[in-house]
Design brief:
Two copies of one chain form a homodimer.
Chain A lengths: L6 H8 L3 H8 L7 H14 L5 H8 L4 E6 L5 H16 L3 E6 L4 H12 L5 E4 L3 H6 L3 H8 L4 E4 L9 E5 L1 H14 L5 E6 L4 H16 L9 E4 L9 H14 L5 E4 L2 H13 L9 E5 L3 H5 L5 E4 L2 H24 L13 E4 L2 E3 L6
Helix pairs in contact in A: 1-2, 2-3, 5-14, 9-10, 11-12
Chain A binds a DNA duplex (30 and 30 nucleotides) through helix 2 and helix 4.
Keywords (chains A, B): DNA-binding, Transcription, Transcription regulation
Protein name (chains A, B): LacI family DNA-binding transcriptional regulator
GO molecular function (chains A, B): DNA-binding transcription factor activity; transcription cis-regulatory region binding
DNA sequence: TATCAATACGGAAACGTTTGCGTTAAAAAT
DNA sequence: ATTTTTAACGCAAACGTTTCCGTATTGATA
């Protein structure tokens, strides 16, 4: 087991000082041609690679970004991570992930863990429990320690930072208007409780679309599900809720669902109840998942472009990290600084498949 | 922006030395009761947290494990990561992920990047390109640098390390035997090229099951797909290949597929061709994904238990990391050491759903 | 009263880098 | 021949910790 080679070892072997080795490897003109070549050759021979940890300590930056998400076994989040990873790698950064598992305390713990030097900045999506408690102190404390944050998807006004969101509102409007245009008169909505901002926004989009299309929004057509109880596990509960929605609205001819599971389950229930899709009933889901593509009929969706979200978030964060560098020497007016937080909106796109006409 | 507080600052404020502060915070009896309390109180007041990077440099361990996988937008891999993350967090470790994107060079780059001090050990699954090239030098070099590796799922004999695999062979035997027991006489196999070890093992399991059941293995019933061309994108190619399989085997009454996509696509094609599932044709897939649960009919699967794999891998790695600690003082016989590499097998389980009788 | 042990703390090295500054010797300029 | 410049390198500090070792003060023992 050959241990990692350090500057000191090279210096000792070649009978020069550590600083000479360091400079030689940086190809500094301060070191004589001969010594420089000799050191470089020897270093290459030993396969020397500088120790990242020592560099981090010295430079006070880790070239690592922390990603904090509620759940990783979830198509949307994993596409976001992929996006983050791609640009992070391109720009020389590593990615360290933490899962909050939708829990407030795990979110806080994970942040504290990583904030103590392990990472230069965060990209995160807020856990449901945190949204419910509306306790955002850990975000603000992190920021005030000089660690920038970029939030995506589940964001919140109370925290001042860059944000990347999808146009939940507009996307939903588009989707519901499409259903209207396709002839739907009684469009059901399957959504989550309002404390999840994306659920709320999508619900508002649904209402706005109906309003603009001058279609009466029947309260009975709206099904609000509490996502807290793990519906993934209790599919039957979900199914019976949806079945109830159909039964109390016999004339229903369109469904807009705010996520993939709701949408495909709606199709499943509808088929069981004898609806023909898309002839009797058209369905659109807000998602980007794999279920919709392989469902039968395949599901028309409002695509969220998770990977783009991740890429944009990573670019925003790294831009800010590297901007902070420059700012330290160019002594910039304290006021003109931190103000410029962007909220970047990733456009949604309707991908038409078999569940709509 | 209040910067991070260090021992030095506390020391200066309280007019003691850095070493005293350090000891006081460790609650060392060497420091007088009074000073100790005073320092601890002040540190708590300032919300002092030790700098991880400095600790890493000093202790020569990062408490971070590197996870290298081919792809993250993949249900199996994300469940494995979840498993890793759970036990890593429990045991005080962080997880840093790298994606090889099935590419050899990205795998090598990522390893080198992380091996220079960023992590204490690796958990990884080999990329397809690496398996094809059969070039494993980067793994062996990493190990010989004293950085332990745990491989999961896609493993290889040429590298000596702990491994966590699923019993691909036995699982496949079980699945195919189940089809036989259910009355299938002509069981198709949809699999990948042999260089992916899991594909090969599952193919062997299929053959063995037929052999033991004294069913003739018709070569025509085996469809080997080259996974290199991104089939996810070209669903139509996949579909036509499968359709061809059905058409040249009109008497086919069972299908065993080595992954989820193949299985659900087979069902889709079969339905299109007029097969009733499970009456005319029974299907079993080797997977753990979300498609199978929501397909219609829902798919009977051989479950891989990705999360368990991740948990076991993390435990193995951390065990070895912390074992290495002790070994350094107890000067153990060089020979008796590294030998004890485990290959841990996670049992598969057949989850019966609607695609089988 | 002189010696000793214990108590309570400070100094400094070490982990592996980078970098400002100082030093030496030779070459160039006066 | 003396001074100045320049090339080529070494020393040491710094990043934030921990820990070994040293030391001053106190109280107890001989």
């Amino acid at each position: 087991m050959k241990k990692k080679v350090t500057l000191k070892q090279i210096a000792r072997e070649l009978d020069v000082s550590v600083s000479t080795v360091s400079r030689a490897l940086a190809d500094s003109k301060e070191i004589g041609e001969n010594t420089r070549r000799r050191i470089q050759a020897f270093a290459k021979f030993l396969n020397y690679k500088p120790n990242n940890i020592a560099l981090s300590l010295k430079n006070k930056k880790t070239k690592t970004i922390g990603v904090l998400i509620p759940e990783i076994v979830h198509h949307f989040f994993s596409t976001v991570i992929r996006g983050i990873e791609i640009v992070a790698n391109e720009r020389g950064y590593n990615v360290i992930v933490g899962l909050s598992n939708e829990s407030f305390s795990k979110e806080v713990l994970n942040m504290e863990m990583l904030a103590n030097g392990s990472i230069d900045g965060f990209i995160l999506s807020i856990s449901k429990e945190t949204l419910l408690k509306q306790d955002y102190h850990h975000f603000n404390e992190t920021i005030s320690q000089g660690i920038p944050i970029v939030m995506f998807d589940r964001v919140v006004n109370e925290v001042e930072c860059d944000k990347v969101i999808v146009d939940d509102f507009k996307g939903s409007v588009k989707a519901v208007k499409k259903l209207v245009d396709n002839g739907c008169k009684h469009i059901g909505l399957i959504t989550t409780m309002d404390y999840v901002s994306v659920g709320r926004l999508r619900t508002q989009g649904y209402l706005r679309a109906l309003e603009e299309s001058q279609v009466y929004a029947e309260p009975n057509l709206i099904l609000k599900l509490d996502d807290m109880v793990s519906l993934e596990e209790n599919l039957d509960i979900l199914e019976s809720e949806i079945e109830h929605l159909f039964k109390r609205n016999p004339k229903i001819d369109g469904v807009f669902a705010v996520n993939e599971l709701y949408a495909v389950t709606a199709m499943k229930v509808a088929k069981k109840l004898g609806y023909a899709i898309p002839d009797d009933l058209q369905v659109i889901g807000f998602t980007d998942g794999v279920l919709s593509k392989h469902a039968s009929p395949s599901l028309t969706i409002v695509s969220q472009h998770g990977q783009k979200i991740g890429e944009k978030a990573a670019d925003l964060l790294i831009d800010r990290l590297e901007m902070d560098d420059d700012e330290s020497d160019a002594n910039i007016n304290e006021n003109t600084r931190e103000e410029a937080f962007e909220t970047y909106v990733i456009e949604t796109e309707i991908i038409e498949r078999e569940s709509t006409k």
